[in-house]
Design goal:
- The complex is a heterodimer of chains A (about 250) and B (about 280).
- Chain A is built from eleven helices and two strands.
- Chain A has a single domain, classed as MetI-like fold (Orthogonal Bundle).
- Chain B has about 280 residues and is mainly alpha-helical.
- Chain B has two domains: about 40 residues, no CATH class; about 230 residues, Orthogonal Bundle (MetI-like fold), CATH 1.10.3720.10.
- Chain B is about 70% helix and about 0% strand.
- Chain B is globular, with a radius of gyration of 23 Å.
- The two termini of chain B are about 30 Å apart.
- Classes of the chains: A mainly alpha (about 250), B mainly alpha (about 280).
- The interface between A and B is large, with 70 and 74 residues.
């Protein structure tokens, strides 16, 4: 019984990836065939190359996600310390949960006029700011567990023993925080990488990220192109997962 | 104040713009600003709050959220408690994580590919001789019950809750709790039902509420898989916001504001009850 459930579980997880792969790399797939008659990697390469928008969407998404991840994990770390030390922590946390929890599309609707007013509607920087509105608060919430882990006690002890504030950061805070910062970086990257609603409302279709392009292919009923775009969308998170496993393994071996 | 300056970054980049956006939305919805402004009027608020579709979309979103939560938590509990022996393998945890690598847009697309009348399962059923014509296949896409929307969300949520419960299982030492109750004479099933499940659920209350809010406010999945008649709250807001009749933009603001206000209230209640629990 357990094995049946396990096989079922593996199937549910693996099938979407395989199916998207077949669609992206396959040609001439007509009902009721279960597998396309022609499958090859070169078909996928051709699909990516033939569409001018594809590579540029990939670039837009990548630069947005990397920029958001850098900004949010760096400043989130600094700001989260002030949150952790604040005497009005609860109120600050409520204020930080709101933009993170509210549906991106609802947030975008509420803020759309402001973005028009600043001339940021339909602009790359407008979408960037929009993603920051979600990733930055996330990162502040994320780092709360780091600051709650007794790091302040360690910092005080080191300072009492004569360490300078530079030494405290260099030898205690940064080495301890590093894995947290890295994980937060990946998470913020994914928040931006997966984002659709805000990009759609604020970007007005002029800022074409990979999710926007995927949707465009879908409404054009261009399922093969959409599958190719989808493969690119799931590739970075799968890679992070694999990297994470790699890191965990090496840590365990040490 | 110089010491607190990092806080200013958050205030300037996130808090002030959001507050300004909210204020503008309130002013617009009351007819105080905007191109079509004719002075103070509660028309948009009355139009939305007096419209049955607004309430059905709220109710529909809440029901979808509740069903998704119920189904995915049940499956996740079965995976974590029932397949315990596999959790010692790292690849098993990795498998549980994989669905979370899918953006909502791609999950919706996959459900579309598998469950339309020309999708994978329809082809499979046809090849297996279960159906004679594609129209006999029950489509889960654009159906009035939101089956496709629920399927897509369950795919994502089950992964999230499995990973969450699996981590909690070790942290709150469910193994020991189960052993104690079994030593005291409880059957394995009774121990799981009365000890493990309540302990796991209690430890994840805030995550359950957050995820519920996430499902209720989701957009891409109902956009692709939902039914035009029964719209989730985000689609209802977008529908009014993008209406060709510009006078209805303010109604979009009203729907969005009502949703955001309700959300703020829930988050506030959650924080208050969590504080009480920790005291």
């Amino acid at each position: 019984m357990k094995r049946v459930i396990l096989v079922l579980l593996l199937g549910v997880v693996a099938m979407p990836i395989l199916y998207l792969g077949l669609l992206a790399m396959g040609r001439s797939w007509f009902f009721p065939e279960i597998i396309p008659s022609e499958v090859s990697v070169s078909i996928l390469v051709e699909r990516v190359r033939s569409e001018a928008g594809f590579v540029s969407a990939l670039g837009t998404s990548m630069s947005l996600a990397l920029g958001i991840a850098l900004f949010s994990s760096f400043f989130g770390f600094i700001v989260s310390k002030e949150f952790a030390l604040s005497t009005r922590k609860r109120w600050w946390l409520i204020s930080v949960y709101l933009p993170y929890l509210i549906s991106p599309v609802i947030l975008a609707i509420l803020m759309s006029r402001l973005f028009i007013f600043f001339g940021l509607s339909g602009a790359y920087f407008g979408v960037f700011w929009g993603h920051v509105l979600m990733a930055f608060p996330f990162s502040i919430i994320y780092f709360q567990s780091f600051w709650a882990g007794g790091i302040f006690d360690q910092m005080r002890t080191a300072a009492n023993l004569g360490a300078s504030s530079v030494q405290v950061y260099q030898d205690i805070v940064i080495p301890t925080a590093w894995p947290f910062v890295l994980a937060c970086f990946f998470q913020c990257f994914l928040i931006s990488w997966f984002e659709y609603g805000f990009t759609y409302v604020i970007g007005l279709g002029k800022v074409e990220s990979l999710t926007i392009l995927t949707y465009k292919y879908l409404i054009e009923a261009n399922t093969n192109q959409a599958a190719a775009a989808s493969l690119f969308l799931i590739a970075p998170p799968l890679m992070f997962l694999w990297l994470n496993k790699f890191v965990l393994f090496t840590e365990k071996n040490q | 104040m110089v010491h607190r300056s990092p806080m200013l970054l958050f205030i300037i980049v996130v808090l002030v713009p959001i507050l300004l956006g909210f204020l503008y939305a309130v002013a617009y919805s009351l007819g105080l600003v905007g191109v079509l402004s004719e002075g103070f009027s509660g028309r948009a608020w009355l139009a939305v709050w007096g419209d049955g579709r607004f309430y059905t979309s709220i109710l529909y979103s809440l029901v979808i959220g509740a069903v998704v939560l119920l189904v995915s938590v049940l499956i996740a509990l079965c995976i974590v408690l029932g397949l315990r022996s596999y959790h010692r393998f790292r690849w098993f945890d990795l498998v549980l994580y994989i669905p979370m690598s899918f953006p909502a847009m791609v999950v919706a697309f996959v459900v579309f590919l598998f469950f339309t009348q020309s999708g994978f399962w329809a082809r499979f059923a046809y090849a297996a001789g279960l159906i004679e014509d594609i129209s006999q296949f029950p489509s889960a896409v654009h159906d009035p019950f939101g089956a496709g929307v629920i399927l897509a969300h369950v795919f994502l949520a089950t992964s999230f809750f499995s990973v969450l419960f699996s981590g909690l299982y070790q942290r709150i030492r469910i193994d020991e709790k189960l052993a104690v109750s079994q030593n005291l004479g409880a059957s394995r099933f009774f121990a799981i039902r009365s000890v493990a499940v309540p302990a796991l659920l209690q430890a994840s209350v805030s995550n359950l509420v957050m995820y519920f809010i996430f499902v209720v406010g989701s957009y891409e999945i109902p956009l692709l898989l939902g039914n035009q008649k029964n719209r989730m709250i985000t689609l209802e807001a977008m529908h009014r916001f993008q209406h060709y009749d510009l006078g209805r933009i303010s109604e979009g603001y009203v729907v969005a504001l009502s949703f955001a206000a309700a959300l703020l209230f829930v988050v506030f209640l959650l924080f208050r009850s969590l504080k009480r629990m920790s005291v």
